[in-house]
Amino acid sequence: MTRVLITDDDALVRAGLALILGGAPGLEVVAEAANGAEAVEKARGDDIDVVLMDLRMPVMDGIAATSAITALADHPKVIVLTTFDADEYVVRALAAGANGFLLKDTAPEEIVAAIGKVVAGEPMLSPTITTRLIRQVTDNAPDDRSAAALALVDSLTDRERDVALAVGRGSSNAEIAQQLHLSIATVKAHISHLFLKLDATNRVQVAICMHDAGLL
């Protein structure tokens, strides 16, 4: 049973998420928090597997709470709840260690699926959010970014380039493995190489590099 902590300062949002997750097999909502400080305390004291984390909250925001939770030993996974007007927060949440992102209007079955992905060890970044983040970064990018990205991409093998393009399209490790007829372990190895060769620390940065190189 996957134990979930719902964190949001809006009681109606918490109630709605609890209703959605309460009816899903294999999921149990075991705690709720109205701000980041409460979430950190409950993540520290309770047996939590996944935290659904709002970003804009009083007392302690979702960025600070995500950073504090991911610093805990054997910490739970954190999935950020976001809206499109908070894109800058999403970028910061990546740096804080968030494992996934959900829009607040995500369909119930997709929320359940996202929780399953992060519990299985896969980061969950939807294609919609990936596209928005790429646009946010590249809209104000200097012209020389393209040349720099092309130089980095030239260091990739053909298979690594295929994996990088799939990452840029928002595919999960399992989806990439199916698309390219690879094992998940091989996909993970390729992604580790991508992080090194593209000077990236997460999948969004890989996507941005491929976009800057004109390949997405």
Detailed description of the structure:
By secondary structure, this protein is of the alpha/beta class. It folds into two domains: 2-124, Response regulator (Rossmann fold, 3-Layer(aba) Sandwich); 142-212, Winged helix-like DNA-binding domain superfamily/Winged helix DNA-binding domain (Arc Repressor Mutant, subunit A, Orthogonal Bundle), CATH 1.10.10.10. It is 54% helix and 13% strand. It contains eleven helices and five strands; from the N terminus they run E-H-E-H-E-H-E-H-E-H-H-H-H-H-H-H. It has helices spanning 11-22, 36-45, 62-70, 87-96, 108-119, 127-138, 145-153, 158-168, 173-180, 184-197, 203-212; strands spanning 2-7, 27-33, 50-54, 77-82, 100-103. Strands 2-1-3-4-5 form a five-stranded parallel β-sheet, sandwiched between helices. It is globular and about 50 Å long. 38% of the residues are buried. The mean pLDDT is 86.
What order do the helices and strands come in, and which of them pair?
Layout: E1 2-7, H1 11-22, E2 27-33, H2 36-45, E3 50-54, H3 62-70, E4 77-82, H4 87-96, E5 100-103, H5 108-119, H6 127-138, H7 145-153, H8 158-168, H9 173-180, H10 184-197, H11 203-212
Parallel strand pairs: 1-2, 1-3, 3-4, 4-5
Helix pairs in contact: 2-3, 3-4, 4-6, 6-11, 7-11, 8-10, 8-11, 9-10
